[in-house]
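Example A, followed by Example B.
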Amino acid sequence: MRSSLPLGLAGSTAWERCGSEPRRTPCASDLERHLLMVARAVSSSLRATLTAVVLVMGYGCRNADPGAGAWEFNVDTVRSDTAGRVRQISWLRVVGQEGADGEPRAKPVILSFDCLPDQASNTIMTEQALRQGTAEVRVTVDRNPPLRVPGFAGTTPSGGQVVLTIPQDSLLAVLSGRQRAIVEYADGAGSSRTTAEFPLAGLGMYRDAFLAACAERGD
């Protein structure tokens, strides 16, 4: 039995309660291209990205407002094609901790909302290699019932990624105003079962600014 979803998600084909199968599966080739697009947009390896974020937070260069939590918001420009056009890109990220099922969550992992010139995405970025294919993902926000989210896993030169194939604004709405998200995921082979925990406090401070910047990215 399907139940209604909170925060304006009713009627969305992307979200369903746990125990129900997703009603649609995105085109794998589109998602494979997206994995490569995100990888190219990251200027260094995932390991370097994680290290840089942790160092910035450790040295106090992160946003000084205590209400911002652990979130990082960035807007930049890139030359996106052979014509040399400059386009805006933006991302909103938070670093969490993850571990294999039954093990301590001691490894860094990123939850990243990215707006590239031709794509808006929600991605879990991990150091572990993930087998390509449809991914099993379950998200539990605070003490709310868990939600099953369709996803696609793969590995790029910068690390493993799980693309959550739901509307970006819908996921941001679910996470905003909350404290913690527990994300359980497995790769395309149903292996590499992992549990990640992300702090959510402060997301609401950046949500509107990020979505506004995303709308200006220039498709």
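Example B, a separate protein, is given below in the same form.
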Amino acid sequence: MKFNLILVALLLLALPIGVSAQTNNIRIPFAFIASDTSFTSGEYTVSTVTGHLKLAPEGVNQGVYLPCNWNGTVKADGKTTLVFEKLGDTYVLREYRAGEKGTSLSVPLSKRHAAWAKGYYAKARQPEYVLISTEM
């Protein structure tokens, strides 16, 4: 029984590492917030690095590393998809879906942005969801 628990724990730890090899270019047509960082519209290189989502303007090596949480599995459709919540006029990156691997990572909000979003929801407003995808 103890061996099975250790095996399951090791498998769960290995899952996010399996996503780390993917790098894709994606065009985001609007300014957005991710974690505690503001981004402009444009072309971005998106990749995962052990528990973080890296966003870098296309052609730039350095980027912003966003903390992520394992979010489960998604349909393995061969597309990289970024899921945004549209709160009023503000777009917030909430999820990264790696369709090649069938995995999903959520991007948590910073405390400041989480309080702002909570205020938005408290006014009985519903966010829109915007998906930006690219073929792999």
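On Example B: Residues 2-21 have pLDDT under 50 and may be disordered.
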